[in-house]
Design brief:
The protein is of the alpha+beta class. Helices cover 24% and strands 33% of the residues. The protein contains 3 helices and 10 strands.
């Protein structure tokens, strides 16, 4: 093989590796912090104990899994709260719940526009494409170890997820 072909193949491999590195960094690199202190969905927040779930939402049903409890409102496709060690570690709002106006503490709800999210939380977020929810934007607060995720479809919020990333490994 001539030196010319070795050089061409080397350049191609280098370009591919740089592109892979860029994509990895874009999806996993640091996000500038956004304060999520005291944020939550509805009346619940990360770190609350299970007693608060029953206090604020007595109609929640419960399913028990190996390491945690899953509380859900209406059905498992609406508002889901996951606990570990008797503390809330994940809140997930996937569908509107009849009779409830569930929002984040900054009044973002399902159907809010991306502009409304940016007005409430700023623009320090990471964009990702996920298998489960499609395009999402992700805010992070390293002080509270929380991430706030908004699924965005047609410029509207389609799902809201708030979780403690040190306690709970959310699978997108």
């Amino acid at each position: 093989m001539s030196k010319k072909w070795v050089l061409i193949i080397s350049v191609i491999i280098l370009v591919v590796l740089i592109a892979i590195g860029f994509i990895w960094f874009k999806n996993n690199g640091p996000i500038k912090d956004t304060s999520l202190k005291d944020d939550g969905i509805g009346k619940l927040a990360i770190g609350m104990d299970e007693e608060h779930i029953r206090h604020y939402y007595p109609e929640f049903a419960i399913s028990h899994e190996k390491n945690n409890n899953i509380y859900y409102y209406n059905d498992e496709d609406s508002f889901v709260t996951t606990t570990e060690k008797k503390r809330v570690v994940c809140l997930e709002l996937k569908n509107e719940v009849p009779g409830q106006k569930l929002t984040t503490k900054k009044n973002v709800t399902l159907g809010s526009s991306l502009k409304e999210v940016e007005q409430a939380y700023g623009k320090n977020y990471r964009k990702k494409s996920t298998e489960r929810y499609g395009n999402i934007i992700e805010f992070q607060d390293s002080k509270t170890t929380q991430k706030l995720v908004f699924g965005v479809f047609d410029d509207k919020v389609s799902v809201i997820i708030l979780y403690d990333y040190e306690e709970f490994d959310y699978q997108f």
